[in-house]
């Protein structure tokens, strides 16, 4: 019987950056950098160029923190400013990379610079790192390269990223404070239930008298906390972890969570305004860059940050593709406020859709600011009242037997 052999797939060679030094054909000392799979690959490539190598050293980068959206926004603004000032592209990457405080970002920019040195276009170099540069970013850079207005589109991209980052910061600010207060309240209640009330329980037992119903209820809750604290702790942590993983992996769960976030009176209103602001800002930026409307809508849905608006964008895109106006398609989706629809209709009629969408984004960003301020002023006293009721009820239940004993004496 003949036996077949299965070829083993080649393992991907991990490339690194090497610093090299040598002499060219004229005997001059030359230096440079090269990304390759090993020192032998660098030496062979340099020999083909007629360079006698004297030193090859692998470039090491210190481990840095995670690359954030703020790092990318600052990089985009710096690159746009330098290109507008006439600095060559490779020199821009060299200056920004060497002066960056985050080694991870410096390493990323160095890799992109080496790609550009080998003849890769800027947008193609960005597309190699989809974790950091989304399709919207790469498509606008490609449009800028083709039209010869790269610095202009990078400037628009920088403005877009800065405004989006500021909007996300406002949303996080609105959510962070109440979540921290709730967490502190839970911790304080747990400490009282697990350590404080058992001490009072021993004192109450020595009274030899019937305890009030509120005190018995608090003691029963304390006994439950003491007996099953590990179940409650791991159950809470496990539930949060499970929900986060389910949200990341399941589009159905994302839609469910995003739909629920749009329901509450104040929080839902905030989420709607933030989604409309980001949606309008993204469409304004892409359409102003000369991207056709149907193609521009490809990047708009994911940028809204809400699965409901992402689904609505697909519906809008299909209707626009068959000749329906953008404003009518937005109205048919049922998720956009009338003000945004009317402004879009005016922009379509006047031929200034990108400007009108930018004004819509500005308006709803201001609305988000006002809603966040109102939410902070509303939540603070509300949380204090809730905490006062919870902690106050526990304290009163603990001291009721002591008051009763004082009346007997």
**Helical content (DSSP H or I, runs of 4+):** over 70%
How far from one another are the termini?
Answer: 102 Å
What is the succession of H and E elements? EEHEHHHHHHHHHHHHHH
Largest sheet, strands/sense/barrel: 3 strands, antiparallel
Q: Strand percentage, roughly?
A: 5-15%
By secondary-structure content and strand pairing, the structural class works out as: mainly alpha
Q: Rg, please?
A: 31 Å
How is the largest sheet built, in terms of strand order? 2-1-3
Which regions have little confidence, pLDDT < 50, spanning 5+ residues? 1-12
- What is the averaged pLDDT score? 84
Principal-axes geometry comes out as flat
Total count of strands: 3
> Helical element count?
15
What is the topology?
Layout lengths: L15 E8 L5 E8 L2 H10 L3 E7 L10 H16 L4 H10 L4 H15 L4 H6 L7 H13 L2 H56 L7 H37 L1 H11 L3 H24 L4 H11 L3 H15 L4 H8 L4 H13 L2 H56 L1
Helix pairs in contact: 2-3, 2-7, 3-4, 6-7, 7-8, 7-10, 7-15, 8-9, 8-15, 10-11, 10-15, 11-12, 12-13, 13-14, 14-15
């Amino acid at each position: 019987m003949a036996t077949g052999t299965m070829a083993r797939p080649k393992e991907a060679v991990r490339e690194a950056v090497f610093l090299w030094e040598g002499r060219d054909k004229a005997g001059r000392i030359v230096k440079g950098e090269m990304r390759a799979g090993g020192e032998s690959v660098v030496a062979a490539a340099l020999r083909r160029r007629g360079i006698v190598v004297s030193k090859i050293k692998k470039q090491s980068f210190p481990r840095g923190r995670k690359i954030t959206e703020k790092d990318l926004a600052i990089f985009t603004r710096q690159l746009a400013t330098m290109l507008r000032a006439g600095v060559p592209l490779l020199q821009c990457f060299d200056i920004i990379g060497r002066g960056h405080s985050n080694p991870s970002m410096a390493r990323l920019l160095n890799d992109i610079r080496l790609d550009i040195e080998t003849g890769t276009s800027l947008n193609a170099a960005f597309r190699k790192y989809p974790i950091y540069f989304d399709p919207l970013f790469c498509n606008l850079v490609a449009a800028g390269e083709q039209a010869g207005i790269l610095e202009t589109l990078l400037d628009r991209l920088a403005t877009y990223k800065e405004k989006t980052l500021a909007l996300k910061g406002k949303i996080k600010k609105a959510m962070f404070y109440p979540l921290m207060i709730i967490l502190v309240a839970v911790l304080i209640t747990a400490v009282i239930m697990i350590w404080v009330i058992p001490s009072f329980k021993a004192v109450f037992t020595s009274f030899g008298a019937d305890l009030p119903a509120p005190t018995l209820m608090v003691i029963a809750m304390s006994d439950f906390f003491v007996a099953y604290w590990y179940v409650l702790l791991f159950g809470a942590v496990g539930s949060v972890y499970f929900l986060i993983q389910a949200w990341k992996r399941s589009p159905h769960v994302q839609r469910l969570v995003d739909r629920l976030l749009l329901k509450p009176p104040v929080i839902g209103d905030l989420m709607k305004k933030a989604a409309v602001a980001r949606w309008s800002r993204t469409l304004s930026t892409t359409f102003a860059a000369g991207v056709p409307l149907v193609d521009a809508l490809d990047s708009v849905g994911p940028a809204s940050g809400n699965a409901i608006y992402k689904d609505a964008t697909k519906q809008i895109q299909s209707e626009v593709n068959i000749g329906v106006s953008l404003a009518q398609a937005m109205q048919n989706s049922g998720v956009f406020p009338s003000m945004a629809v009317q402004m879009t209709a005016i922009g379509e009629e006047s031929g200034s859709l990108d400007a009108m969408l930018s004004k819509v984004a500005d308006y709803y960003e201001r609305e988000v600011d006002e809603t966040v301020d109102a939410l902070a002023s509303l939540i603070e006293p509300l949380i204090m009242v809730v905490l006062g009721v919870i902690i106050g009820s526990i304290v009163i239940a603990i001291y009721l037997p002591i008051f009763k004993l004082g009346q007997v004496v």
